[in-house]
Design brief:
465 residues, TIM Barrel, binds zinc ion
């Protein structure tokens, strides 16, 4: 199949942009990239899809997602809570802890549908709890056509600590079961969906509640099976205080001391990491998922993105939690990544749309462990790409397609999505999911979850009449 007449942002080593370009897809791979006229003559029998002048770019990779929280979009903005721990323990955990497996699958479907419709072709899920039912969510990933690394929760919090913190019982499980279930899920699902699915350890944060020997055990198991690990790290100043209380210089060094750093690890946030931490992350090949919109919404300090990139850290992007960020629209968050880094540095020269697009594609692919087969449009790589319809007032004129894609385009401008060679969306219609059914399912569930959880204060504080 030949996708013709596009402006192709290849992200190849020369970063070539091909006007009136085309991609030839054979099976799950890209067979050729070049000018439309040349490829049509080389592949005269290929079925042609004319993309009508759209921008064509690699699919976006979101390296930090909480699928179960998509159904909680907006719950942080009724009666607002003052800090992270009250937000988590008094609101989010009771809600998620009251989910049935069907609720979790409904939330996952909603999140995956939103990602597909806004150009995300692959993602890292951070924390799938036992009560969500791993198999149901893995099945949604397989049938939707998306590429995913599913982080199944691994935790080591004692029942006494759990109760002291007021940790909702529905969000807690034992160390033994959390590890065993991850290994079992890995046995069942790794490589499913024609290789699109990976199963990772999604460790709970390195916090005072956690027995840190968990990380030694998990990192050893992950290395033996070549599994990925993802964990929230160095999010807030309290994380560094905790690490220092144990004799480590920083939270990042604590992670290194327990085996967590390495090329198969993605650390979410790293907002309080400093220059020494950045050097350690770079030297170990550890990836960082930068979540600019979520961080800004939660009023966390802006991460030192440009410092991390300069130090050689593989920094990718993530949308994080829908209750905080509201959307899983990585096109929108690319713009916020650029704006927030410039604001922090006080200069437009701090970062450009080219670097941000690299973070959302090439760096995301490396974070997934797929740097050799994903992230750019080159012959031999997996056929994961999107097209953006620029025939709209907010996108014209197109002086520079990279700037248009990063600064002006929104998720709703994505027209076509191809993953692993399969056309998953065409003309904004997702071909692998029943959009109306997904929305109807969520609509029938979200208030019932809040009622079961006994959580209030989720709606507008203004009078609803
Ligand atoms: Zn998160």
């Amino acid at each position: 199949m030949i996708f013709s007449h596009g402006t192709v942002i290849t992200m190849n080593p020369l970063r070539e942009i091909i006007e009136d370009g085309a991609l030839v897809v054979s099976g799950d791979r890209i067979a050729a990239v070049g000018k439309t006229a040349e490829l049509r003559s080389r592949y005269p029998d290929a079925e042609e899809v004319d993309v009508g002048g759209h921008i064509v770019m690699p699919g976006l990779i979101d390296t930090h997602v909480h699928l179960a929280q998509t159904m909680l979009r907006g719950v942080s903005e009724g009666k607002r809570l003052p800090d992270f721990s009250s937000w988590l323990f008094a609101r989010i955990f009771p809600l998620q802890g009251s989910y049935s497996e069907a609720d979790a699958a409904a939330s996952a479907r909603l999140g995956i549908l939103e990602m597909l419709k806004s150009g995300t072709t692959g993602f890292v899920e951070c924390l799938l709890a036992e009560r969500y039912g791993f198999d149901g969510i893995a099945e949604v990933c397989v049938t939707s056509g998306i590429r995913a690394a599913l982080g199944k929760v691994a935790m080591a919090v004692s029942p006494e600590t759990r109760d002291e913190l007021g940790w909702h019982h529905g969000m807690w499980q034992t160390r033994e079961s959390s590890i065993q279930q991850t290994l079992d899920a890995h046995d069942r699902w790794e490589g499913a969906g024609d290789g699109r699915l990976q199963v990772w350890f999604g460790c709970r944060s390195a916090e005072p509640a956690c027995d840190l020997t968990l990380y030694d055990e998990v990192s050893e198991l992950a290395r033996a099976r070549d599994m990925g690990i993802t964990v929230h790290l160095a999010e807030l100043p309290a994380d560094n205080d905790f690490a220092r209380s144990l004799g480590f210089r920083s939270h990042v060094e604590l992670a290194g001391g327990h085996g967590l750093l390495g090329p198969r690890t993605v650390l979410a946030h790293c907002t309080v990491a400093d220059g020494d931490d950045h050097r350690l992350l770079a030297s170990t090949g550890t990836s960082v998922s930068h979540n600019p919109a979520n961080n800004a919404s939660a009023a966390w300090g802006p991460a030192a993105v440009t410092d991390m990139l300069e130090a050689g850290v593989n920094v990718a992007l993530g949308c994080d939690a829908a209750p905080s960020n509201a959307n899983l629209d990585l096109l929108r968050d690319m713009r916020i990544a650029c704006h927030s880094a410039r604001q922090r540095a006080g200069t437009r020269l701090a970062i450009g749309p080219e670097t941000v697009l690299e973070m959302a594609t090439l760096n995301g692919a490396r974070a997934l462990g797929l740097g050799d087969s994903l992230g750019s449009l080159e012959p031999g790589k997996k056929a994961d790409f999107i097209t953006i319809d620029t025939d709209a007032p907010h996108l014209q004129p197109v002086w520079n397609p990279v700037a248009t894609g990063v600064f002006a385009a929104q998720g709703q401008d994505v027209d076509t999505v191809v993953i692993n060679g399969q056309t998953v969306m065409r003309n904004r219609v997702v071909l692998t999911m029943d959009e109306a059914a997904v929305l109807e399912d969520v609509g029938g569930r979200y208030r019932a979850v809040a009622a079961r959880a006994g959580v209030s204060g989720l709606e507008s504080e203004w009078p609803t009449v």
